[in-house]
What we know:
With 342 residues, the protein is of the alpha+beta class. It has nine helices and 15 strands. The longest helix has 24 residues, at 216-239.
Amino acid sequence: KIISKTCTGPVNIAVIKYWGKRDEKLILPINASLSGTLDQQQLRAKTTVAASAGFTKDRMWLNGQEQSLDNPRLQNVLKEIRRRARKRKSGCEDDLDMLTWRVHICSENNFPTAAGLASSAAGLACLVFSLSKLFNVDGDISDIARQGSGSACRSVYGGFVEWEMGKEKDGSDSVARQVASENHWPEMRVLILVVSADKKHVGSTAGMQTSVKTSPLLKHRAEKIVPERMQAMIEAIQKKDFESFADLTMKDSNQFHSVCLDTYPPISYMTDISHKIVRMVHAINAHFKKSVLAYTFDAGPNACLYLLEDHVPLVLGFINHFFPYDVNNEQYIRGLLSEPQK
Ligand code: DP6
């Protein structure tokens, strides 16, 4: 007998960035962060998990290739799911049996992995969501997703999502929570400009470790800047104040990349084309005499633009005019927002 579940999980794009951990094992951040979860029509992870008494060990395939599960993060995730399932099911013999079964995990993304397109977030959120369905674990699972990859905890919910930093040592209060649902701001769009689908030169995990050790700006950012910025961002979203939302988003992206440069040795994720996109966005905003477009860059050169539906045709016109060869023609336009789906 084999029991299986297949689910899909969304990408999220942070507008207040997570960069730096205070606990490497539990993946606890040094600051809160906030993102929009994208709908799953074009970009998503898809995972099938199967359990059977006949499987001899846990195994996993990513985009068709077998991966080692000998990885502390994945082990923690599996352990925690089984622990919660056991807690829930004690007293029910049949189900308890299933908890000793090994699982096979098959996961794929329909977009470039590790190119700064938040693939780990979608993948890990989807994995944890699928396992929770397989083992009938309910309640908040964002803290389990967090232990797979920090930013993955935000992909567990749709709409705009905050990852609370938390104070507890065991991480119990470092969880994701929805700030506004997908229906709150239906005009919101995200346009992803794929500048390069290459693997990033320094992965986020290693990059933020070096930043925590060497960047004085990071400490200042975490203590003095982010707490106020989080409040202002939540207010901008609640009021649907696009100008404030855009200004905060761009400033936060710029500060995150400044922290990367302040890291020693420095890390640079943005390329000349990324910087040219930044200049274009500011030129468009200057023309309108207000911010109608916001850029944000993660640990890679690709740009994510947040904008309102009305401005999409105009902005696409500018992009095709200024970047006819530099930006992948399949620019993804995304609406916000959807949570993982069974
Ligand atoms: C720049 O979540 O990939 O995208 O917790 O080590 O797995 P780990 O890092 P990860 O870092 C994402 C960093 C970021 C900013 C963000 O999404 O908030």
